[in-house]
Amino acid sequence: MMVVQRAEFRIWAAAVLLALACSTASIWQLHASREAHLHAAEQLALSLSNAAAQRIAVSLRSMDMLLTEVTEKVKDPATLPSDLSTTLRTKLDVFPELDSIGLVDEQGWLRQIIYRDGPKRMVPVHIADTPHIRAMQETWREGRLFLSPPVPELFTLTPVILLTRPLVDSQGIFHGSAGLAVKTDFIDAALASVVPKAGDAAGAFSPDGVLFSRFPVDKRFTGRSIRDSGLFRAYTASSGTAGTERRAVSFSDGIERIVAFTPVPGYDVVAAVGIARAKVLDRWQRELWVHGGIQSLFAGIIFALAFRLSRSERRRRKVSSQLLANERAHVELLERAVKERTAELNTSLAALAENEERFRRIVDISPFPLVLTRRADNGVVYINERASETFGVPQNQAADKVAPNFWVHAADRAHMIDTLTAQGLIRNQEALLKRGNGEAFTALLSAATVTLGGEALVLTAVLDITERKRLEEDFARSNRDLEQFSYAVSHDLQEPLRMVSSYLALLERRYRDQLDSDAHEFIGFAVDGAQRMSRMISDLLEYSRVHRRGNPLGSVDLNDALSDALANLSTAIAESGAHVEHQPLPTVQGDASQLMRVFQNLVGNAIKYRRPNTSPTVTITAAQDDGQWVVSVADDGIGIDPAATGRLFQVFQRLNPRDAYEGSGVGLAVCRRILERHGGRIWVDSAGEGQGCTFRFSIPAIPPTTENEEGAAVATP
């Protein structure tokens, strides 16, 4: 009774543990998903704030260039030639966001103010007590640009930002200052261009916490201090660099957002973008409900199964008790029969009947199709219900049919019988059989010889794998189609990229004198991007050719493959002063050109990612492990963060900035694909950054086929 109760207890304990394990896994997955959503929102906000900062910087740089030009042309704020006044008014037309240009003398008198549509107020006006004039009089020797917070324009009272530079002659004498009154519209436009969705927001503020602008536009906050806001506290905590804050409550509308901020390069302005936290977590909350429902359903299924198993255990206990009672009664009956017959004959007959009945029960309840045939004439003795369904023949009509009639090729059955005779057992032999209606199907056969009633029989298990074979063929064909598609797309993309690069180069040559430095820089960026994409496509082509254009596998001396790779890298080795040493390497079955490519990539990476001002040392060794050759390429370079090794062998994955180390991130993915084709794998070990790393790859060893003089089998070294 205690054994039975323990069995039921184990069933329910296993159900509870399984439900708890699934719940724990689901909770961990939900936590990881939440972190992924928040991280993605942080990165999006950081990218958008960087884009806004770049756009604001471009506008400020253009205005600063105009202001510098004004300081170079104006000698005396009090006297302005008419032609220069006309020229400055023309400049205002070029920049629609400019409100006016003002000239102030060294005493703080506004001597000139130029509007787009002519003068609006009489000058001079004494403005020496304004913050930007005081700052200019105190810091004019530094010669830097002063950027004020939004203030009312002197005459029109329109909110403007004042950009001011000192007027200093060639003798170093201060004559006053020149300033631009700029509307905040250009900052509004930059912020509006990066706000992704409704409920999100963007803003720009000074490093000392004065708001320039906010989007959605709300002029009530323009020029106000935000030093008490969570955004400014996060910015201050970052020491004035770009950063993010996951929980920042808006000072204007009270919405909690994920905020990122980026200083505008070269100017005292910080751009910030906030993404509504509730919207970011909305999708995750839907996942939470879905996971909760699935988990509840799964727990219900687990406990339902536990209930059924427990009930089945009780039924089995009851049946066992009945069988035990019946067996006892049968034993008593046999004991009475023994008295009437000889003990030896009755014992033999009872044992034979029991064995035959047990065998038949096993065959009947088997989940696999089973066929019992005679060795003597190949006649079918018995098939179970599953075999009847598989062959399409009723059980009561299968007896005495000839087994070879169910084989497409009768000789295959004869070969199976010969193998069975020699080995006594067959496992998973593939054969082509046919059903009662003549339909052919592919099956896996396992067979053994048995003896019943003194007659030699063959028991065969038949597993129909026709659908599995079809799926394998479909999968192989799909992989071939995918590789062909990848190759065709990568190849066809090369020509448009070459045309883009060619026309950009032609554009730069033909209009060189008409383009400013920014335009030349932008063209350089575009050409560089096209060239990098071309290299990436070329690498992708190489990746897709590993299986399509690989040579047949043959005997390859890895010493020769390494020598060819080092010859290709001779220039890089000489320039870096690298020291490459290696032990004797084995001979393996492989593609010589592809294995050379693996060595070239690994040694080339060891040279490329060396420590600064250090000649790298690269060591190549090989060791045999469980039927595999494991080749190691160790270096003393910059090393790898162990947490990042999981994505190192994926396509287009890079662990270092592109401007620090060139490359497309495909080389190690190609190495992985090559070694998979050779039946091996590749991995990397590193103690961490600055500790060097060791790349290892395995490849099957060639089985020993030759013998030495003493007769012992030896493998090719």
From TrEMBL:
Residues covered by the Histidine kinase domain: 488-703
Keywords: Kinase, Phosphoprotein, Transferase
Class of this enzyme: transferase
Occurrences of domain PAS (ranges): 355-429
EC number of this enzyme: 2.7.13.3
Reaction(s) catalysed (UniProt annotation): ATP + protein L-histidine = ADP + protein N-phospho-L-histidine
Alphabetical list of InterPro entries matching this protein: HATPase_C_sf (IPR036890), HATPase_dom (IPR003594), His_kinase_dom (IPR005467), HisK_dim/P_dom (IPR003661), HisK_dim/P_sf (IPR036097), PAS (IPR000014), PAS-like_dom_sf (IPR035965), Sensor_kinase/Photoreceptor (IPR052162)
Domain of life where this protein originates: Bacteria
SUPFAM superfamilies: ATPase domain of HSP90 chaperone/DNA topoisomerase II/histidine kinase, Homodimeric domain of signal transducing histidine kinase, PYP-like sensor domain (PAS domain)
GO MF annotation: an example: phosphorelay sensor kinase activity
Xref: CDD domains: HisKA (cd00082), PDC1_DGC_like (cd12914), PDC2_DGC_like (cd12915)
PANTHER family to which the protein is assigned, alphabetical: PAC DOMAIN-CONTAINING PROTEIN, PHYTOCHROME-LIKE PROTEIN CPH1
Protein's recorded name: histidine kinase
Species annotation: Magnetospirillum aberrantis SpK
Organism placement in taxonomy: Bacteria, Pseudomonadati, Pseudomonadota, Alphaproteobacteria, Rhodospirillales
